[in-house]
Amino acid sequence: MAVGFNGKAANRTSVQEFILLGFAHHPELQIFLFLVFLIIYTVAFTGNLLILLVIVVDGRLHNPMYFLLGNLSFIDMCYMSGTVPQMLANFLREPKTISYSGCMVQIFALISCVGAECILLAAMAYDRYVAICHPLLYMVIMSKKVCLQMVAASWVGGCLNSLVHTLLTSALSFCGPNEIRHFTCDVPPLLELSCADTALNNLVLHTASVFIGISPCLFIIVSYIFIALAILRIRSSEGRHKAFSTCTSHLTVVITFFGTALFNYNRSNAGYSLDMDILVSTLYCIVTPTLNPIIYSLRNQEVKEALRKLAGGKQATFL
Predict the structure, then answer these.
(1) How far apart are CA 173 and CA 263, in angstroms?
(2) Which CATH superfamily is domain 17-311 in?
(3) Which of 13, 228, 250, 271 is the most buried (most CB within 10 A)?
């Protein structure tokens, strides 16, 4: 049955499950898409796991930059694992449903990881600012305590933001229809389905996007303005190239992640096809975590050497 109802008017919601429409309008491609996304998920999870492992076991990578990078890999692993397995299961079954409680859990996991990554990317920009603009004070400013506080702040901020959205969404009434224009549960498509007033939810959503999304983005922009000015003051072209090369991967991740996430959470609901919705969501939910270990880590010579050492079975050096 497409919609589950409990028949009790006293209950806040009558919808017991949701149908995820993402990719469902291409039935002839279900097996192909399953294989494609299974490969992408496997590659992304393995790549981020390898980055995390080499940073943990190789003492040469025990510094603030790689500590933050390792946490980015961990967030991306959580990020994808909260959404992709459900999507893969739905490729192989009809109807493509998720329970109401499962939907709320998925919302909490997804928004927690999105918020944590926004804040952590800002922390990584600050790390690059200190490294380039104040190199002599780098290890003093970016102490172990400061790094731990940055990571803790990213998770606390992400989880608190997610808790607010999850509670507000769970307080809404859903009377039907129950078809979500997405391949996972997320706040914007659920607000479209509610038969209650969603003004408060939309206000909180846009307010949170300012503090959790736009503010870290602006912080990153300001950090890179100072970084660019510092790089321009470097006399040798080799020195400028080396300094800039440490930032290009982070900038690529920032542009991809913030661009697609802010577009997804701040655009109008009207005027976009389901294919466009899915394309944008896929970019920030799946493609960005997949690209992170490639564009941010595997271009790094120290990480490449650590990976070769790990693959060769040599004993790693611990701090």
Answers:
(1) 26
(2) Rhodopsin 7-helix transmembrane proteins (1.20.1070.10)
(3) 250
